[in-house]
Design goal:
548 residues, alpha/beta, eight-stranded mixed β-sheet, transmembrane helix, membrane, P-loop_NTPase, FtsK domain-containing protein
């Protein structure tokens, strides 16, 4: 992934600040080295003066006179002696240097007794996995020396491993997934549960590096990201996994955070996305974040199968074609989306045949966001109606050519109810919330590079775009602003990103809402951005579909 240059103001300012900090740090280090003797003497004189004041304060008042006479006599004797003042200054400087020395106790070399016990216990636990009876000179043996197999190790403040390098014999099958998974599971249990570990297998050198990953930031709220058209920020990940950062604001603080960017459009290899998670894991927050970013350059149609009203803040907004929570409205909206995709395909094809560029209305992005479509599948089966997911085949298969993007969010227990078209064409995958390695592998198509934990904050999970690497992911906080449990800061952040409200559908002229739609084959159909909201008055194509 190529690094995209930041805006000139941001990049220039950041570079100048970094250079200034580096120069200041270098100058401070050099000054400390040069002035170290003077600093030591000054610190010693200060300590001697403090000791003198303390001695004077502790002396009783009736004995202060004789003490002053004794000190004056000593000073007089030293002043009259040959080379007395010089010897006095040398003695004073030596005493100051001795008192001003660095008294910080040196750091202990090597692990302490408890850390040695941890290393020895881990070594004994690895013996059954890294040893064999046929090895004439085993690297691992019961009662062996752990120093040979742990060349580097670090501990945190709680006494647990924070960094560990493990050597293993060459005959260990480190190229197979199951043996590696057993070792990683053992190390996770011995190094301490509740943390995420990164395992780096160096097969050529027969070394395994274990690092504890810092938790991803959870305090990043929804905001206007510095992205190009066709780029959507799904969340944020580790700095070592991507080669790009985004400048973000958090209150009065500015920082650069590595993002997970999903690219859509004609040249995208992953034009549609599937998000899976447990209840409360943050899939609806992810859809709201995507909708806010999509409304900057396109139109959005929202189908909410949960029916909890979590997308009510988008109602009546500019660019929002509709928010449907009922089976009839969902079917009508998806049928209109299928017809709109066909109309765009026909119009773009005719323009190419005539040698003209595609019409503007076929290039404006159209986003179809579905939250829990399996609910409508249940209702359709119960009432003997057509599954609304069947209407997604045309947008999923042909939507990329005409800027139509489908985003589906579903829960783990309803994955079996997803249509085959949804499974096949959603090549961008996101899994949020706690999940086992088997579940993550089944959804993402590859195991994660870290160990998942049982307790994670909302919006925390993994993402994989097509056949790329699996990234740790933290979705920006995008809660429902109308929810009472939402904080004022997050509520204001979401409300500021919402587009302005449009004219209510009831106030529109009657002929415009009752006008018969043109066939999908014509290229002169109105732009999707001008289509009334589906929540109260259906667009003309949808109204005709319902009438049929």
């Amino acid at each position: 992934m190529a690094r995209r240059p930041l805006p000139r103001i941001l990049s220039t300012g950041s570079a100048q600040i970094a250079r200034s900090r580096e120069l200041a740090r270098t100058a401070a280090d050099s000054a400390t080295d040069v002035l170290h003797p003077l600093i030591t003497l000054t610190r010693g004189m200060r300590r001697l003066a403090s000791a003198g004041r303390r001695k004077w304060a502790e002396t009783p008042k009736d004995k202060r006179g004789p003490l002053l006479f004794l000190v004056a006599s000593v000073i007089l004797v030293v002043a009259l002696m040959p080379y007395g003042p010089l010897l006095a200054v040398i003695t004073l400087m030596a005493a100051a240097a001795w008192q001003g020395r660095d008294r910080t106790p040196p750091a202990p070399e090597g692990p302490d007794e408890s850390q040695i016990q941890r290393l020895q216990s881990l070594y004994e636990a690895l013996v059954p996995y890294f040893s064999t009876a046929e090895d004439p000179s085993p690297l691992y043996a019961h009662g062996g020396e752990w120093e040979k197999v742990f060349p580097a190790h670090e501990f945190d403040g709680s006494g647990r491993f924070s960094h560990l390098v493990i050597r293993y014999p060459a005959y260990f099958p480190d190229g197979e997934a199951e043996p590696r998974a057993r070792i990683e599971q053992l190390l996770t249990a011995k190094a301490g549960r509740g943390r995420e570990y990164l395992f780096a297998w160096e097969e050529e050198g027969n070394e395994l590096t274990v690092d504890v990953l810092a938790p991803l930031p959870t305090d990043i709220a929804a905001q206007r990201f510095v992205t190009a058209p066709g780029e959507t920020v799904l969340g944020f990940t580790d700095p070592s996994r991507v080669q790009r950062t985004l400048p973000l604001t958090h209150g009065d603080e500015r920082r650069d955070v590595p993002p997970v960017v999903w690219r859509t459009g004609v040249r995208s290899t992953e034009p549609h996305l599937l998000a899976v998670g447990q209840p409360g894991s943050g899939t609806s927050s992810l859809l709201r974040s995507i909708a806010l970013q999509a409304l900057r350059h396109g139109d959005v149609l929202i189908v909410d199968g949960g029916g909890t009203g979590e997308y009510g803040c988008f109602a009546g907004r500019e660019g929002v074609l509709g928010i449907e929570t009922g089976p009839a409205g969902a079917t009508a909206g998806l049928e209109w989306a299928a017809h709109e995709t066909e109309r765009r395909l026909i119009a773009a094809n005719r323009a190419r045949q005539d040698g003209d560029p595609p019409p503007v209305d076929t290039r404006r992005p159209l986003w179809i966001l579905l939250d829990r479509p399996s609910v409508f599948t249940h209702l359709a089966e119960a009432n003997g109606r057509r599954d609304p997911q069947a209407l997604l085949q045309v947008p999923l298969r042909h939507g990329r050519a005409v800027a139509v993007t489908v985003v589906v969010a579903e829960q783990f227990d309803c994955l079996d109810l997803l249509a085959d078209a949804v499974r096949q064409h959603t090549r961008a995958r996101v899994v949020l919330g706690p999940a086992s390695v088997a579940r993550l592998t089944a959804v993402l198509g590859a195991p994660p590079h870290t160990t998942p934990v049982d307790q994670v904050p909302p919006g925390r999970g993994y993402a994989r775009l097509g056949t790329g690497a699996v990234h740790r992911l933290q979705v920006p906080a995008t809660p429902d602003p109308y929810d009472d449990a939402t904080s004022d800061a997050h509520r204001q952040a979401v409300l500021e990103l919402l587009p302005p409200r449009t004219t209510a559908p009831q106030a529109e002229p009657a002929p415009e809402t009752q006008e018969a739609p043109e066939p999908p084959e014509t290229s002169e159909a109105p732009e999707p951005a001008k289509t009334p909201a589906l929540t109260k008055t259906l667009p003309a194509p949808v109204e005709a579909a319902v009438a049929e």
